[in-house]
Structure formats: C-alpha cells, structure tokens
Specification:
Number of strands: 27
Radius of gyration: 27 Å
Number of helices: 22
Shape: globular
Largest sheet: 8 strands, parallel, barrel
Strand content: 15-25%
Strand order of the largest sheet: 3-4-5-8-9-10-11-12
Distance between the termini: 40 Å
Structural class: alpha/beta
Bound molecules: flavin mononucleotide, iron/sulfur cluster
C-alpha cells in the first residue's frame, strides 16, 4: 500500500473514507427543475471513478421556499429530489465514494424577486451587499417553520441513502444568527453567544433525533469573520468547542472570513495570483483546539499543498474542489504514479464566476467537466490512424493536438512564434495571472507523451500544410487586436496587447477605451498604472469590464483603485487628433448626438480581435468539405462527414479565435468536441 499521506484511509465515526481527498460542497448550477438529473449525477460519478473518497454534493441545497437559490441549486424541499439523489449516491457508492449533501437556508443571501416572490428573511433588516435584498426580520413562526424544513430535507437525504449531510453556516441564515453584525434579535435568539447559537443547535438536535447516530452530520462554518464587530477568532474557537461538546456533529468544516461582498468572498475562495492555502493554518488551529475531525478547502491548489496539509496534521480531510473540476481523476493518477499527468487548476475561477451570472460552472480548460454526458475525460482511440496538421499552438491548437494524439493520430503542429501559448502567453505576462501558463504547459507535456511533432518559428503557408499530405487540417491561428474603429486618428492609438506585451511604452496620462469589456483592457490599465501613469478606463457600456466577472474583478480593483484609476461609463471614443505633443480624444454617446473633448498623451484601445484566417481561405478550395462544419453532428457528438468537394484532399476546420473572438474555454471546447470524433 502507498505511504502517500493523501492515500491513507480516514475513519469518520462508523464510515471509512478511503483516502483524504474530498470535494467540498459546490453547486455547479447543473440541476434541472431543482433536481440532480443526468448531467449532475454523471459529474459526481466521474469524480467517484477518479477515486475521490467523499463527494459533498450540492452546495447550498435549499430547504425552504423563502430561500430561493441565487444560482441554480438543488431544491431539497421537493420530495421528488429523493430518487435522483438515490441514483447519484448508489452509482458513486459502486466506486467506494461516500456521498453527502450540504443543506442550507440562505436567509438574506438571496433575492425576493426570484421563484415565489417571498421576502428574504434574516435576524436583522441589514441588507447583504452582494444580493441586495432588504430582508424581513425573522419572526418566531418563521423559526419554527424553517427548523421543520431543515429536518424534512434531512429525512429526504437519509431516505436517498446518502452517508450524511452538512449545514452551511457562512453567510447564510445559520451564521446570520451567530454574527452580531446580522443579528439584532432579543432573547432567546439574540444577544449572548449562547442565544445566537440557539437556532443552529436546535436545528442540529432536531435533525439528529430524526436521522439517528449512524448518519454523518457536520457543519461548514466561519470560525472567524475577520471583521470588526463580527464573530472573532476567540468566539469561533469557542463555537468549535461547543459544537464538538454537543455530540451532535461528527466533523467541523472550517471557513475563515465573510462572503457578503465580492471582495470578501474572494478572500474566502482565493483565485489565481492570490496566496495559496491562506486559511489552512487557521483550520489547523481549530483542529488543535478541538482534537476533532476537521475538514478544509481553500486554494490548496495542488497535490503537494494538500499532502502537506495532511502530513502536518493540520486537517483530516482536504477539499480539492476546483482542482477536481479541472481533473476528476486526481486520486487515480496518484495511485498510478502519474502525478505529473494531473491537469492543474490554474485558479482562473471561470467556474465559480459563471454561476453568479446565471451560467453553468465550466472549467476554463477542461471542457468535459459538466458535460460528462457528451464529452470524454478519457479520449478513446480512433479506429483508423490519420495524419492531422494543426496550424497554431495556442489553447485551441494545443487542445486539438492533444486530443488528436490521444485518438492515436499522427499530429504535426506549425507555430509562427518560438513558443506555444498564443494569447495565453500574453495573459500570463501579468504576475497575478502567470498561473494561466499551466493551461499550455500541461498540454505541451501531454503532447510530448503522445509524440506530437512541433514546428516552431514557422509561419506556415498553404503549401507547407499540403506538403504534409494531411487527412485533416485544423486552423487554430487565433486573431489579432482590432483597433481601427475611429472616424479619424486610428494611427494615433495603440492596442491593449501592445501595452501588455511591452511593445508600446506606457504613457503618463492615458485613456484606455474598452469596447470589448474583457480582461486585456484592465490588464493594460494595470501595466500603465504600475509604471506610474494616470489611467482613465472608458466604456460605452452601462458598467465597465462587463466580461470580467465578479471575483476576477477583485484583484484588478484592489490594484487599480489604489493607483487612482478612474472609470467612465456610457461614453464612446469617436476620434483622436494630434494637438502638440498630446492627443485630443473626441468622445460621444450612444444616447444622443452630444460630444466632449479631452487631452491625453496616450490612447489605448481594447476592442477584441479579428481572425487570422488567410491560410484557412487559401486551403478551403482544396478541402473535401470546403471548410463546412456540420453543426448537428458537432453538437450531438457524431463524426464530421460533409463532402461538398469530393476531389478535395483533406477535411478542413478552423477553431477558436481564428473563427471569431471568444474566450479560452470556447477555444478549448471547439477543439475537444471536434477532435474527439476525428
Ligand atoms: C462552482 C462552485 C460553487 C460553489 N458553491 C458552494 C456552495 O454552495 N457552498 C459552499 O459551502 N461552498 C461552495 N463553493 C466553495 C467550495 O466548496 C470551496 O470552498 C472553494 O472552491 C475553495 O476550495 P478549492 O480551492 O479547493 O476550490 C463553491 C465553489 C465552486 C467552484
Ligand atoms: S475554471 Fe479555473 S479555477 Fe475553476 S476549476 Fe478550472 S482552472 Fe480551476
């Protein structure tokens, strides 16, 4: 048996967890009608196949009607949930993976204009900044009602054959009772610590009475709100001791911080560029103080950090939650001695940011996650070996090369630059975003294993491609910034890429005009501000940086606000004119015909990219499909069989930004879903 600390079993009461790795509760927003149907189940089963010891399903599964999900969560108040949870649990159990669920009432962390239009409810009228509802102050009958709902939901989960459940108490109703910042009730539920904890202990007692001792019960809670007037560390340790002494729970799952603003949430769940495992030592302090089973997750972003957490006895179970979205087979690869094959989580937080915008959680660079019904995590071999030529070694080209290699094809990649990476290499120039290069490095390692041939420093023409006598050609050449958008003065501006790459020296008084709303604008602003320039970011949109989602915006704002960057919304740059050694910007509005003028010494434009597609159009007449993609086949996972030009010598496809400017996930998904059937 391996002596890897991560692979040792852990006995949690009567339950033996087969190793120390779990995924903490995380709602990927996959439910349909509030129920965990096929997409949901297959997502968890894939992790079970990958060897995970414990999967904590759901995330904030709602127990009451007046806790409408803020993103598409499981509705634990529905009786119909039982057969779906049962099937999920049964199938995970077949692989020896324990299955639990997180239940909650969101309290004020929701909105009244969702679902049944019931008022949000909380132990005070204080509004949560992130979701903006002014809650109703909870009444005695609400308390009775919600406690009953918790018990009923727990009984449903027991009936479904789960191994246990945990209650969420950070930012939700339970800890809204605990925190003096959100509890203005009188006795018996407000005032002293004992009173503030009363609601939770009553819930736990009532659940325990119904589910019995052979059902794991835990709490995921903030043991230090890190905010003046909130739950202090001393109080958090006291709560931890009381939880243990109550005999009601079987483990503690530790959170440090608050989640009521985007910034606070990002400190609890850090993203790329932020400190690794910032709350691990604190979780270790709770374990030391209680000598009780302790779980923790929070950017323990690689296996080495997780191993350290177990080896040093800081915690008993580590959550690698986002890392399992990137790589569902972590344990399996560890057991097979293939640690270097583990696809790394790069902390891009595309997964989490998407759910707060109403989307499904997808991993920026594993397009099979959440699509287990149609996309393979392990790509099967093709029946027939083909010769595949790929032009471009950015994320789309490399994913195409990797998948074609896994299919057993002979693969040749042309790349004009001396290194792979394309736009990702540019992004990774920002110190805060340097982890992005993991997307490229991992693929290069896989391509090496699969004997993919690379021709760097080769600006391939159509002849270079046809000389290889390919069966399939993939154009993944990406795009170049499009800045020619002004009625006058296009020659006076530089692109956001020019600034990020260092090709243009940052000015001292700079306008960054952003009509794409994506990261390069703020990344360029960051470079200029760091060099001492004054920056104004201007957009014609209602809000700046609309494509940078909530948690990804936090590090930008922390950097830019401190450097005095200003943000101007609803104005559009129309023209630029040289005035002495300055540039005059003529600025108009989409709302009317008025204009205004202002002087800068540099104007930077961020307006997306235009495809680099010459080679595609050169090759098109020689191809058998004339570049055509059968969308039905693509979407439903069938082979591409278009033959509009029967004498054509090869199939031709283009993917990623070489088609139209999108994002990294789109580029990688383009490649995976096409190549898996080639
Ligand atoms: C898509 C997504 C949804 C999440 N939803 C919840 C949730 O509902 N409840 C919860 O306690 N934590 C939730 N989390 C937080 C995770 O449980 C975990 O604490 C966090 O991702 C940090 O761990 P990691 O760095 O290993 O990913 C969510 C995380 C993700 C990525
Ligand atoms: S999107 Fe980023 S943070 Fe989320 S799982 Fe993928 S790599 Fe990790």
């Amino acid at each position: 048996m391996s002596n890897d600390p991560l692979l040792q079993p852990f006995k949690l009461k009567h339950l033996t967890l087969k190793n120390r790795l779990m995924t903490t509760s995380h709602e990927p927003a996959y439910p349909e009608d509030g129920l965990p149907k096929d997409r949901y189940r297959l997502y968890h089963v894939e992790r079970a196949k990958g060897g995970l010891a414990l999967t904590m399903t759901a995330g904030s599964a709602a127990v009451s009607l007046d806790s409408p999900p803020v993103f598409n969560n499981i509705l634990a108040w529905k009786d119909e949930v039982v057969p779906y949870m049962k099937r999920l649990a049964d199938e995970c159990h077949e692989y020896g993976t324990a299955v639990m669920i997180q239940l909650t009432h969101l309290g004020r962390r929701t909105r009244w204009d969702k679902a049944d239009w019931l008022p949000a409810v909380s132990p005070s009228h204080e509004r949560e900044p992130a979701h903006r509802a002014f809650p109703k102050k909870i009444e005695d009958w609400d308390i009775v009602r919600i406690q009953k709902d918790f018990v009923a939901a727990a009984e449903r989960m027991k009936a479904a054959g789960l191994d246990g459940l945990e209650i969420e108490a950070y930012g939700h109703l339970n800890d809204q009772f605990w925190s003096p910042l959100t509890n203005t009730l009188d006795v018996p539920y407000g005032g002293s610590l004992e009173n503030r904890l009363r609601f939770t202990f009553e819930v736990l007692t009532k659940i325990r009475e119904k589910v019995g001792p052979a059902f794991i019960l835990g709490l995921r809670y903030t043991a230090d709100e890190v905010q003046t007037g909130g739950i202090s560390k001393a109080e958090g340790l006291e709560i931890s001791r009381r939880l243990k002494d109550s005999g009601l729970v079987d483990y503690l799952n530790i959170i440090r911080g608050r989640i009521d603003t985007d910034a606070a949430l990002t400190d609890v769940i850090p993203i790329q560029g932020m400190k690794s495992a910032p709350h691990l030592d604190f979780a270790g302090e709770v374990r030391a103080a209680t000598q009780f089973p302790t779980f923790h997750a929070g950017r323990l972003s690689d296996v080495a950090t997780a191993r350290h957490a177990i080896a040093t006895g800081k915690v008993d179970m580590v959550g690698l939650t986002r890392p399992h979205m990137t790589e569902p087979h972590i344990v399996k690869k560890l057991m097979e001695g293939r640690e270097e094959d583990i696809r790394p989580c790069v902390g891009a937080n595309y997964c989490l940011d998407r759910i707060y915008q109403g989307g499904l959680a997808f991993c920026i660079h594993n397009a099979a996650t959440g699509r287990e019904e149609t996309m393979p995590h392990i790509v099967p071999k093709a029946d027939k070996k083909k010769r595949v030529v790929i032009v471009g070694a950015g994320p789309a080209g490399l994913e195409a090369a990797r998948v074609a290699g896994e299919r057993g094809h002979e693969v040749i990649v042309f790349e004009a630059a001396d290194k792979p990476g394309g736009q990702i290499r540019l992004t990774a120039q920002s110190p805060r975003r340097k982890e992005m290069i993991g997307i490229i490095d991992w693929r290069m390692k896989q391509c090496e294993r699969l004997d993919v041939q690379f021709r760097f420093n080769t600006l391939a023409g159509a002849d270079d491609v046809t000389a290889e006598k390919p069966d399939v050609v993939i154009i993944a050449t990406g795009g170049l910034p499009h800045t020619e958008i002004l009625k006058e003065g296009n020659d006076l501006v530089v692109s956001s890429w020019d600034i990020i790459s260092g090709d243009a020296k940052p000015g001292t008084n700079v306008l960054v005009f952003d009509d794409a709303g994506d990261p390069p604008a703020l990344q360029a602003a960051d470079v200029i501000a760091a060099a001492g320039g004054t920056v104004e970011v201007m957009t014609p949109d209602r809000a700046f940086a609309p494509e940078i989602m909530a948690m990804n915006l936090v590090p930008y704002m922390r950097s830019l606000q401190q450097k005095g960057t200003t943000f101007t919304v609803t104005w559009r740059l129309i023209a630029a004119r040289r005035v002495g050694n300055q540039i005059e910007a003529e600025v108009g509005s989409d709302y009317g015909a008025w204009t205004t003028r202002k002087l800068y010494d540099q104007i930077v434009i961020n307006n997306g990219t235009r495809p680099l597609d010459e080679i595609y159009f050169e090759l098109k007449p020689q191809s058998s499909n004339l570049g055509e993609v059968d969308h039905q086949a693509l979407v439903h996972g069938r082979k591409q069989a278009v033959t509009t030009h029967s004498s054509g010598a090869f199939q031709l496809f283009r993917i990623g930004d070489a088609v139209a400017a999108r994002n990294t996930h789109a580029a990688i998904y383009d490649a995976l879903r096409l190549m898996k059937d080639i």
